[in-house]
Sequence to fold (140 residues):
Amino acid sequence: MTRFIRHPAEITIEVSTRGQSTHDTHNTINLSIGGLAFRCDREFAPGDVVEIRVPFVRPPFEVEARVAWCKAREGHYEIGVEFLNPDDVFMTRMVEQVCQIENYKQDILRIEGRLLSPEEAATEWLIKYAARFPGSANKQ
Fold:
């Protein structure tokens, strides 16, 4: 049973294991204040510690997480990780910001018929709304 509400979100994240100098790019399935799930082409063992980066949110988000589960799916794996410090206020802001960006992406598709990549949606949302986002140092 999960302790936090999961928000469906397909965003690009970068994942690496401890000691790995490069980050592999993956797409999330959902996220919450306590962790996230993502698709991956390799298997992880429960208990593995990974570094998760979301480079397009402001400020950029980077956190260590522990693999909670790994399930083989058709041609890939689904990995669930829990953040090592789920009480961090920064994580709450990141989840809220990512949800706002995902909503923006869906609104643009519905209203304008434009299909934005996660990065395009993040860039447009940051330009238009980030300064007014709760907790922003540059509120207008």
